[in-house]
Design a protein that fits this description.
Number of helices of chain B: 5
Largest interface: A-B, 18 and 22 residues
CATH topology of chain B: Rossmann fold
Oligomer: heterodimer
Helix content of chain A: 40-55%
Order of helices and strands of chain A: HHHHHEHEHEHHEEHEEHEEEH
CATH class of the largest domain in chain A: Alpha Beta
CATH topology of the largest domain in chain A: Rossmann fold
Structural class of chain B: alpha/beta
Strand order of the largest sheet of chain B: 2-1-3-4-5
Radius of gyration of chain A: 20 Å
Number of helices of chain A: 12
CATH class of chain B: Alpha Beta
Number of domains of chain A: 2
Largest sheet of chain B: 5 strands, parallel
Radius of gyration of chain B: 13 Å
Strand order of the largest sheet of chain A: 6-2-1-7-8-10-9
CATH superfamily of chain B: Response regulator
Number of strands of chain B: 5
Strand content of chain B: 15-25%
Amino acid sequence: MTPEDFERLQALLASRAGYRLSRERMQLAEHRLGPVARREGYHNVEAMLASLWSRPVASLGWGVIEALLNGETWFRRDRATFEVLERELLPALTAARGGPVRIWSAGAGSGQEAYSLAIAALEAGARVEVLATDLSRQAIEKALSGLYSSFEIQRGLSARTMLRWFEQVDDQWRALPELRAAITFKRANLLDEPRDEGRFDIIFCRHVLGDMTPERRPRLLDGLERRLVDDGCLFLGMDERPDGDSIAFRPVAGRRGLYVKSPSAYRRAA
Amino acid sequence: MSPVDPKTCLIVDDSRIIRKVARRILEDLAFEVQEAADGAEALEVCVGAMPDVVLLDWQMPIMDGMTFLGRLRALPDGRDPKVLFCSVETRADRIAEALSAGADEYVMKPFDGDILQSKLAEVGAIQSPS
């Protein structure tokens, strides 16, 4: 891959996904694109990119983008976050709402976060509706299948939880139907305008903001804000925060990564 | 015991390679590590000084993991260590059997540092990884 190829990849990722492909990821990019080139019938990565630059095909473009996103995730990532959800938010929201608590796993990757949320809720006896979306079609297909290798299933899940909520299928583990039924999986771009009126009580959007270009971050945050009810909760990664002096989200003291949406009326007055 | 004393972990496995791999991971997590090649050897170590954590293989010569676990739990203070079974046995019913025999966690081989770290956090032997 030439430096020019990499610069064009950076531009492609930034414009379509708002993703910041840093220069030190050049080797990793080359490594990840190898299988894409083979799958698409190209001799090598250079040939595939040459073709993409000369005659952009949407499906190939997205295949390339998906391969370069940072899809790493695991069960109950940032354990403290799940403890806040289980001990504080789910009991309070269940009592207050009288209906199912609506949670959005935004940037769900291969689904471990969404399954962790659903398990937490089911074990707490709380009714939830979980929507899980990701930009990567491959990741969402895996999430929907609910199938995980023994490496994946063991990362973050206790053996008891694994046995309770997953069944063994050959050398893999598949989420039980009652668990899968709690979650809707969809491919979606967080930069797109929300197309429906769905509003959520809680949004998990962790380890997405940190990988975004500064120009695209306001658009992501705006989309999250519009999908969250007033006083709704937004979980970011432990080390992530909304930009600048955002008055849309207030940090919660002592709960790293947790933000509460300011009521709309208050924001208009301010 | 002062709060700066490192936690101790006993690795029980008849494979020298597995012991070596596990030792490296555990030492990176600031554990003080001891090794035993079978259940009988491990029991001797535990009688001398009870470790905080035992990483326990199932199939071993002389005394297997299941027998060791039963004997350990019968010792004075033998319920104190957190026991993580660590075996190539990956069938759900066998995992359930190990848990009901008194293991605190179960690790399917092969494993890596991320998995071991998350299992140790699960039993409260280390702070959770973020």
